[in-house]
Amino acid sequence: MTKELSHYVGGKHIAGQSGRFADVFDPNTGSVQSRVPLASKAEVEAAIANAEVAQVEWAAQNPQRRARVMMEFLRLVQRDMEPLARLLSSEHGKTVADSKGDIQRGLEVVEFAVGIPHLLKGEYSDQAGRGIDVYSMRQPLGVVAGITPFNFPAMIPLWKAAPAIACGNAFILKPSERDPSVPLRLAELFLEAGLPAGIFNVVNGDKEAVDALLTDPRVMAIGFVGSSTIAEYIYSTAAAHGKRVQCFGGAKNHMVVMPDADMDQAADALTGAAYGSAGERCMAISVAVPVGKGTTEALLDKLIPRIRQLKVGPSNDPDADFGPLITSAAAGRVRDYIDLGVKEGASLVLDGRDFKLQGYESGFFMGGSLFDHVTPNMRIYKEEIFGPVLSIVRAPNYEAALHLPSAHEYGNGVAIFTRDGDAARDFAQRVKVGMVGVNVPIPVPIAYHTFGGWKRSGFGDLNQHGPDSIRFYTRTKTVTSRWPSGIKEGASFVIPTMS
Ligand code: NAD
């Protein structure tokens, strides 16, 4: 019998009622390890109703008490780090070490949320007019929802839930149906940490569950991370239903390598950033841009042996550099892109399409692939491949290299490798991309700054975590107050001014 997963609502595991399920695979073996229920509209509505009731009391607690729940949650997740990482790795296919990184980057936003008493402090203007004080406060929205992708099943749910809950909201998570077990476990740990039932809920599902969240008037805000087509759909649908929305989409991250870069450092950085987690990261580098012919040759000399030496293995192999892709469909899609690149005329220098791992022949594995002579008109350059494939686009000079990521329709992350501070500064100033690394290949900002891409990588105006997350999960109320010794004038029909 295949194990059947549940939803988690009101502090309890709830069996699915819809009769619809999705398979959850072990990507190492290709076998189905469990099935996850796909919620109906009615099941989502029941979760919202439950959360709406629970939120009132949670918002009434003082923020220091809410912070203490976060502190205890941090301790519990650290206690359970090893089994959580193994569970994550078994459904996603990323290595156990990388799974710990996934959890840890989520915890760092929980640490940020521990500062909520300070973060929620409002503004105060004394004597804004004679006898008049003005102050503003940040109040929670009510019930909010997060819809998250498969590739960071701990980090992204926590990026959304921690600030949302710390602000006093109730949170409904609709995680990816590909790897829902870690989110369910996080829900149990939140309860164990003292979070009241109904404040962190997990509703598993697909489009039906998502649409129920997008259209229900009781859900006040939607945070989404996933592919750009779905991000755009979620953004427009939720906004049309009067919600505040932030949606983060796909990516095509470039790494510019200047002639003066340390080539060993650049090649190491590129190998890790392109092939780590089998390239299934929104901040993966998928395009390398060496500047000048000499740089391209020097870089390829260093890069090719490193890619050849990559160790692809089962996700629980401590020596593996990366594991399998999430599904056989995902691996098939990546193979199709490599076929397409060959047809489009790019040179396939290293071909990972036929990689097979002995003893794991049915797993969703691929080797690392490398294309050279990729040009901006090719689909393999324009579209997100989301697999272990790196493209080299040769740039004749710095301005041409700067133009590539700036003109691309995605604008998530970008990096420059150089020893020249002037070039690095100019690049950071002028490039039209949301997150920039200088000699840092995956510039995911730390928790107390904000994360967000530009162009088709981000829809909405506020970023994730950092101060933006507190703005996103609260609304401002501004009070203008006067305590006169006695109101002596009669009614005034002119708008009050501070003249
Ligand atoms: P996806 O868009 O397929 O799914 C994301 C979420 O949307 C899932 O919860 C899924 O169930 C739901 N969904 C899928 N189809 C839907 C539909 N038709 N209607 C409503 N909901 C739907 O993305 P994925 O494959 O899980 O994740 C990979 C993508 O996420 C990549 O494009 C990657 O770049 C992107 N990503 C972006 C960031 C970022 O911060 N910009 C971070 C991580 C991942």
* DSSP summary, beta strand count: 23
Radius of gyration: 25 Å
Shape: globular
CATH class of the largest domain: Alpha Beta
In CATH, the homologous superfamily of the largest domain goes by the name Aldehyde Dehydrogenase, Chain A, domain 1
CATH architecture assignment of the largest domain? 3-Layer(aba) Sandwich
Sheet with the most strands: spatial strand order: 15-16-17-14-13-19-20
Percent of residues in beta strands: 15-25%
Biggest sheet architecture: 7 strands, mixed
How would you describe this structure in keywords?
alpha/beta, globular, Aldehyde Dehydrogenase, Chain A, domain 1, binds nicotinamide-adenine-dinucleotide, 6-stranded mixed β-sheet, Aldehyde Dehydrogenase, Chain A, domain 2, 499 residues, Aldehyde_DH_dom, single chain, oxidoreductase, 7-stranded mixed β-sheet
Q: How is the secondary structure organized here?
A:
Elements: E1 3-4, E2 7-9, E3 12-14, E4 21-26, E5 31-37, H1 41-60, H2 63-79, H3 81-92, H4 96-113, H5 116-119, E6 123-129, E7 132-140, E8 143-147, H6 155-166, E9 170-174, H7 181-192, E10 200-202, H8 207-215, E11 219-225, H9 228-240, E12 244-248, E13 253-257, H10 263-275, E14 285-290, H11 293-308, H12 328-344, E15 347-350, E16 369-372, H13 379-382, E17 389-392, H14 398-407, E18 410-411, E19 413-417, H15 421-430, E20 435-438, E21 454-455, E22 458-459, H16 466-472, E23 474-482
Helix pairs in contact: 1-8, 2-4, 2-7, 3-4, 4-6, 10-11
This protein binds nicotinamide-adenine-dinucleotide.
